[in-house]
Amino acid sequence: MTHKLIKDKQTNGIDIQGWTVLSYKTSILNSQEIDAASADLGIPIPEMIFGNNFLSIEHTSGFKLEFKALPALAMVDQSSKSSDLIKVSYAREWFDKRRLVYNQQASNMVNQEHITDVVKPYDWTYTTKYNGTNLSVHEKMQFTPTTTEIIDIEQLRRPDPILFYDENILFEDELADNGTAVLTTKVRVMPSCFLILLRFFLRVDDVLFRIHDTRIYHRFGTNAVVRECSTRESSYKEIRAKIPRSNGEDLSLLLDSNWVSSQLPEQSSWTEAANLEQ
Amino acid sequence: MVLDLDACINSLFQRQLLAESVIKEICEKTKELLMSESNVVHIKAPVTVVGDIHGQFYDLLEIFKIGGYCPDTNYLFLGDYVDRGLYSVETMSILTCLKLRYPERVQLVRGNHESRAVTQTYGFYTECMKKYGSAQVWHYFTDLFDYLTLSVVIDNMIFCVHGGLSPSIHTIDQIKVMDRFKEIPHEGPMADLVWSDPDPGREEFAVSPRGAGYTFGSLVVEKFLHENGMDHILRAHQLCMEGFQVLFDDQLSTVWSAPNYCYRCGNLASILEVGVAGERHFNVFEAAPENERPSATQAQRSVLANGASAGLFAGVGASAIGNGANSGSSNGSGGTSVSSINGGADFTQDPIHYFL
C-alpha cells in the first residue's frame, strides 16, 4: 500500500488509503486572539492556548473529524455551581483566614467589603467532554452508539511499522500552580489501520486526578470509524500512594499522564461508530 | 579556600556547573547579604527589568547579550527563575553569583516558583537530583529562596513585584513590616504579592473561582499608585505571546522573558529598560538558537527535568520537543518515515509511539 508523508513548516501528515491525516502546530494565541476567544467563550482562556493548532482526519467519502482547543473549551461548564465542584486543597483554610482578618479589622476594611466578588463562575479545571468536531458533509456520517464495532486492541498491539506518528497540544494550564489541565492529541498510522487518542488530563494537587480519553480507530478497507470514550477519576491521595517507595520525594510520576492513566479506575465508557458509506 | 566569584561566573557562562560545595558557600553568603535587604528595595534607574526565566538558561545568556553584561547594566529580576525549563540549576547559580558579586547592581525578587512545594512538582527538584545525584543543591537554593526580597521600587515611582497587589496592602510601609523569611504561604499578603493577576475587565479585587487567590482591577491599581505617590506597577508572572503587555491606561506592565516557553509556545519575550527619566522601553527578543532545537541530550534531560513532557516526548527524539512555531521540525520523523526508526520495534519497548 502506498502512502505519502506531508510535511511543511507547521503541518505534518500523511495521505493513505483515501485518508488525509493532518497535524498543524503553531504558537499560542496572541493577545487579540485571546481577547476575542475569551469574549466569545465567556471564560478566561488557559495559560497556554494553542488555539490554532489542530489534528484532522478526512476521507474521500466526505467524512471529516477535527480536534481543536476552542470548541473543547466551549464545553467547559459555566453553570452557577460550576466553580463549586472542585476547590484547591487549601481553599477552606484560605477562605476562613480571610474572613477572620476582615472581622478583626472590620473598621478599616469597610472599603473592601466588595471582595466577596467572585469572578464569574466557570469550571476552572477546564474539564471538557469534547470528543472532536465532526465536519462531515453527509448527515449519515455522524457517530451513533454501536454494540458491534470495537477497537481492535490485538491489532494495535502488533508491532507493525508506524508510518506516521504525531503529538499535538491543544491547551495547557497549571491552574496557578495547583496542578495541570492539558488537552493533547496523539495519532499513529500503520499500514492496516490508524488510532487517535484525544486526552484531557487533570491533576489538582492534593485533590484529584481525572482523565477523559477519546479514541478514534479505523481499519482500512472497512466502512466504520469507531469512537470510544472513557472517563477515569480518583483522589490524589490514592494515586500518590501508588508511587514506588524507591522514588522518594520525587513526585514527577504524577505529571506523567500515561502512568496516572494506568492507575486510574474507569468510571464510564461508551462506544460509537460513524459510517463512511453514504 | 577563597571563593572566586569571577571564576564561578565565567565557568557558568561556559555552561559548566559549579561544585556542590561551591553552591553551598555561595548560598550561605548570599543569604547573609539578603538578610539585610528590606522587603521593599529602593533602587535608581537606569535598570533593565527581566520577567520569568523558568530555567531557560540559554535565553538568559541571550538576555545578557541583548541587554548588556553585569556590572555595565543594572538588572532587576522579577522571579520565577526555576522550573519548567531544562537549566534551573545553571540559571539559579549564575543569578546568585551575580547578586553576590554586584549586590547593588543586581536585584532578585521572589516569584511563586521560588518555593519548596512548587519546585518539588515542576522540575527544579528533579533537575537537582539528576545533575548532582542528591537533593542537597535543591536544599541550598530553596533555603536561599526564603531570603529573597518581595518587591523593588525604582526612583520612588515604579513599584515592581512578581505577581501583583493584595487587598491587605495599601501602602509600601505595610510590605516593609511583613515577615518574609519563610516558605510562601497559601494565603495572606505575601502569597498575594507573588500570585495575583490583573483583570482588565474589572475595577476591584475579585476572588478566583478556584477558591483561593485574587485578581485586581483598574481602580485598585489607581488607588494603590495614588496612595503611594507612584505612577506605574511593573510585574511578571503571566505568559503572553508578544512578550509584554501594558494595561490600565499605561499604569501596569507585564514583562515576560522566557521566549518559546517550555520549548513549544512559540511566544516572544522581552526585557524592559527603564531610563533615568522613567521612560520605559520593551526590548523584544526571540528564542536563542539552542532553545529552538534542543540536542538529543537536552531532550533526554527534559524528560528528566519535566515529567509533564516525559509522557509526551520520551524516546521520540530531539525534534519532537519543539511544538512551537519556531521549531521547523516538529515531528519525530524528520525527513524519513518514523517506520524506519520503529519498524519491527518491540511493542513493550516503545509505549510512546505504540500508545493504546
TrEMBL record, chain A:
<protein>
    <submittedName>
        <fullName>TIP41-like family-domain-containing protein</fullName>
    </submittedName>
</protein>
<dbReference type="GO" id="GO:0031929">
    <property type="term" value="P:TOR signaling"/>
</dbReference>
<comment type="similarity">
    <text>Belongs to the TIP41 family.</text>
</comment>
<dbReference type="GO" id="GO:0005829">
    <property type="term" value="C:cytosol"/>
</dbReference>
<dbReference type="Pfam" id="PF04176">
    <property type="entry name" value="TIP41"/>
</dbReference>
<dbReference type="InterPro" id="IPR007303">
    <property type="entry name" value="TIP41-like"/>
</dbReference>
<dbReference type="InterPro" id="IPR051330">
    <property type="entry name" value="Phosphatase_reg/MetRdx"/>
</dbReference>
UniProtKB/TrEMBL annotation, chain B:
<dbReference type="InterPro" id="IPR047129">
    <property type="entry name" value="PPA2-like"/>
</dbReference>
<protein>
    <recommendedName>
        <fullName>Serine/threonine-protein phosphatase</fullName>
        <ecNumber>3.1.3.16</ecNumber>
    </recommendedName>
</protein>
<dbReference type="InterPro" id="IPR006186">
    <property type="entry name" value="Ser/Thr-sp_prot-phosphatase"/>
</dbReference>
<dbReference type="GO" id="GO:1901525">
    <property type="term" value="P:negative regulation of mitophagy"/>
</dbReference>
<dbReference type="GO" id="GO:0005977">
    <property type="term" value="P:glycogen metabolic process"/>
</dbReference>
<dbReference type="InterPro" id="IPR029052">
    <property type="entry name" value="Metallo-depent_PP-like"/>
</dbReference>
<dbReference type="GO" id="GO:0046872">
    <property type="term" value="F:metal ion binding"/>
</dbReference>
<comment type="similarity">
    <text>Belongs to the PPP phosphatase family.</text>
</comment>
<dbReference type="GO" id="GO:0005741">
    <property type="term" value="C:mitochondrial outer membrane"/>
</dbReference>
<feature type="domain" description="Serine/threonine specific protein phosphatases">
    <location>
        <begin position="109"/>
        <end position="114"/>
    </location>
</feature>
<keyword id="KW-0378">Hydrolase</keyword>
<dbReference type="GO" id="GO:0004722">
    <property type="term" value="F:protein serine/threonine phosphatase activity"/>
</dbReference>
<dbReference type="InterPro" id="IPR004843">
    <property type="entry name" value="Calcineurin-like_PHP"/>
</dbReference>
<keyword id="KW-0464">Manganese</keyword>
<keyword id="KW-0479">Metal-binding</keyword>
<dbReference type="Pfam" id="PF00149">
    <property type="entry name" value="Metallophos"/>
</dbReference>
